Amino acid sequence: MSTNWAGRERCQDLENMKTEIDKLSINNQQKEELKKYIDKLLEAFGCPQTQKH
C-alpha cells in the first residue's frame, strides 16, 4: 500500500482547510486547535508542511 495515497491534491485540500478555518466565527484558540489537528493529518498523510503558525 502506498504511503502517499492522498496525493498532492488531498494535501492541498487540507492546507486550504486551514485557510477556511480562519474565516469561521469561532475564537482563536479553537482555530489553533483545528489547525493543529489538520497539521497532524498532513503529517500522517506524508504531506509536505508548507505553512507554519
Question: Could you walk me through the main structural features you see in this protein, from its secondary elements to its overall organization?
Answer:
By secondary structure, this protein is an all-alpha fold. Helices cover 64% and strands 0% of the residues. The protein contains 2 helices and no strands. The longest helix has 17 residues, at 7-23. The chain starts with 6 loop residues before the first helix and ends in a 9-residue tail after the last helix. The model has no long low-confidence stretch (mean pLDDT 84).
Structural class: mainly alpha
> Kindly, what is the distance between the CA atoms of the first and last residues, rounded to a whole number of angstroms?
32 Å
Taken in chain order, the helices and strands follow as HH
The total of helices stands at: 2
Assign an overall shape: elongated
- Strand residues, percent: under 5%
Secondary structure layout plus pairing:
Blueprint: H1 7-23, H2 28-44
Brief synopsis:
The chain is mainly alpha-helical. The chain contains 2 helices and no strands.
